[in-house]
């Protein structure tokens, strides 16, 4: 069976016949799986009503007292509720009622998770049949594609192509090779949110082709989240992968690496507001010096509207460069270090101190105890130099109670803003590790 969309012309070599695939699709959909709580309450209500009808002879009741709460719900509301389920659960739930039987065909949000299926063949048959039977006139708002295998690359290319030819706005996928991305992925005028996750690059095993593509054209993209990806140099010899995203406001970089002997990651964006960076920790995997990529690199900021900077690290603190406009525009900073000085590199105290010197207009600073310990290891003359920063500081937060000798570091941070509010709260940081 082929898809009705004319753009989907990829041929699929599935072992089962179209009739057999449809039987597998329907039988797999009817297999019992616990129903999501949102629909469990509605189903329980309907079951109670059916039981009440069976007992009418024994307990006659006025029909006016029986309320069918499901039938009065509009289709748009039911579709909205179904969108919170993964796609397999949504199909199974629709089978429970004749009225719901076709609602899954118009779901605007699809969550396709391989872990919901017993084996990859059933999963791939479900993908093919679901997209074949879906109402192709319905726009696709969001697609989450979660796979732990990519044996049938043409099938996943078809899924990605389907999403981008149906004006997807939010796209999330985990992948191990750039071969998954068909030409349709490289350009979209509707995509606003993109999340790409690769395999952990420090785990033992084969190296995957997880290089972030250079030729992406997403003029409406506002949110970009990247994890376990590789950044390479462009034609200018620089690692500047985000300069073409003119509408980008939120950027998350989680444990990514550089290749091509690059030393710095340049982040240039005219409208970037929120930046989150989590770097690899030396203790979280193999020795990085035996790998063919660089996990130790500096960060160049050329984002004049950057307002919030959230950093998570451990053994290594990157050097921070950039334009004065970008560095001075940052108002809210979160420094989340996990290791103390004894696990850290010797230059970390001076690097962290330079961060605070360059980020002159911080209004809110959230910092962990290990970060304070790193600063406390700095030489006495380093902490006694003229410190022009943190004059606008209004809030200083810690993740736990601080005891001497770290109190002297707190006094140092507050010397130019003694009236700033100090908050000791264990929930002031949200942990990424």
Q: Please compute the radius of gyration using only Cα atoms.
A: 27 Å
- What's the β-strand tally? 17
- The DSSP helix count reads 11
Q: Residue share in helices? A: 25-40%
Mind describing the biggest β-sheet?
12 strands, parallel
* Whole-number tally of structural domains: 1
Q: Identify the quaternary structure here.
A: single chain
Instruction: Enumerate the spans where pLDDT stays under 50 for 5 or more consecutive residues.
Output: 1-16, 20-24, 26-33, 427-433
Helix/strand class: alpha/beta
Q: What's the shape?
A: globular
Protein name: Putative F-box domain, leucine-rich repeat domain, L domain-containing protein
Domain F-box: 73-108
Pfam families: F-box
What is the secondary structure topology, with strand pairs?
Blueprint lengths: L17 H13 L6 H18 L20 H8 L4 H8 L14 E5 L6 H14 L8 E5 L6 H13 L4 E5 L18 E5 L25 E5 L2 E2 L18 E5 L2 E2 L5 E5 L5 E5 L19 E5 L5 E6 L6 E3 L1 H6 L2 E6 L10 H11 L5 E4 L1 H8 L3 H4 L11 E4 L8 H7 L7 E4 L9
Parallel strand pairs: 1-2, 2-3, 3-4, 4-5, 5-7, 6-8, 7-10, 9-11, 10-12, 11-13, 12-14, 14-15, 15-16, 16-17
Characteristic terms for this protein:
twelve-stranded parallel β-sheet; three-stranded parallel β-sheet; alpha/beta; 433 residues; disordered C terminus; 25% helix
Structural account:
This is Putative F-box domain, leucine-rich repeat domain, L domain-containing protein. It holds the Pfam family F-box. Residues 73-108 form the F-box domain. The protein is α/β, with parallel strands linked by helices and 433 residues long. It has one domain (73-425). The two termini are 45 Å apart. Helix content is 25%, strand content 18%. The strands form 3 sheets. The chain has a 12-stranded parallel beta sheet with strand order 1-2-3-4-5-7-10-12-14-15-16-17. Helix 1 (18-30) packs across helix 5. It has helices at residues 18-30, 37-54, 75-82, 87-94, 120-133, 153-165, 324-329, 348-358, 369-376, 380-383, 407-413, and strands at 109-113, 142-146, 170-174, 193-197, 223-227, 230-231, 250-254, 257-258, 264-268, 274-278, 298-302, 308-313, 320-322, 332-337, 364-367, 395-398, 421-424.
């Amino acid at each position: 069976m082929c898809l009705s969309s004319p753009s989907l012309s990829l041929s699929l070599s599935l072992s089962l016949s179209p009739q057999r695939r449809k039987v597998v699709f329907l039988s797999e959909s009817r297999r019992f799986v616990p129903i999501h709580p949102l629909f469990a309450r509605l189903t329980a209500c309907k079951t109670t009503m059916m039981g009440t009808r069976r007992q009418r002879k024994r307990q006659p009741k006025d029909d006016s007292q029986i309320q069918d709460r499901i039938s009065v719900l509009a289709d748009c509301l039911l579709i909205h509720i179904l969108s919170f389920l993964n796609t397999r659960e949504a199909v199974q739930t629709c089978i429970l009622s004749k009225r719901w039987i076709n609602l899954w065909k118009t779901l605007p949000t699809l969550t396709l998770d391989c872990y919901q299926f017993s084996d990859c063949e059933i999963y791939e048959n479900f993908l093919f049949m679901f997209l074949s039977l879906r109402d192709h006139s319905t726009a696709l708002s969001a697609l989450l594609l979660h796979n732990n295998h990519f044996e049938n690359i043409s099938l996943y290319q078809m899924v990605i192509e389907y999403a981008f030819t149906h004006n997807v706005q939010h796209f999330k996928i985990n992948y191990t090779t750039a071969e998954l991305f068909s030409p349709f992925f490289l350009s979209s005028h509707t995509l606003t949110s993109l999340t790409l996750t690769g395999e952990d690059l420090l785990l033992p095993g084969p190296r995957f082709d997880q290089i972030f593509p250079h030729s992406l054209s997403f003029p409406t993209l506002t949110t970009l989240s990247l994890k376990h990806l590789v950044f390479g140099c462009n034609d200018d010899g620089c690692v500047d992968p985000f300069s073409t995203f003119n509408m980008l406001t939120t950027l998350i970089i989680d444990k990514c690496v550089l290749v091509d002997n690059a030393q710095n990651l340049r982040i240039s964006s005219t409208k970037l507001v929120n930046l989150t960076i989590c770097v690899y920790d030396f203790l979280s995997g193999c020795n990085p010096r035996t790998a063919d990529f660089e996990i130790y690199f500096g960060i160049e900021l050329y984002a004049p509207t950057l307002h919030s900077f959230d950093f998570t690290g451990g053994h290594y603190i990157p050097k921070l460069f950039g334009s004065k406009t970008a560095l001075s525009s940052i108002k809210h900073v979160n420094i989340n270090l996990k290791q103390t000085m004894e696990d850290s590199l010797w230059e970390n105290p001076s690097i962290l101190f330079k961060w605070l010197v360059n980020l002159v207009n911080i209004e809110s600073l959230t910092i962990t105890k290990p970060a304070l310990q790193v600063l406390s290891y700095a030489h006495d003359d380093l902490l006694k130099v003229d410190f022009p920063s943190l004059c606008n500081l209004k809030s200083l937060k810690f993740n736990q109670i601080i005891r001497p000798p770290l109190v002297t570091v707190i006094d140092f941070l507050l010397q130019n803003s003694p009236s700033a509010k100090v908050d000791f709260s264990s929930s002031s940081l949200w942990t990424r590790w």
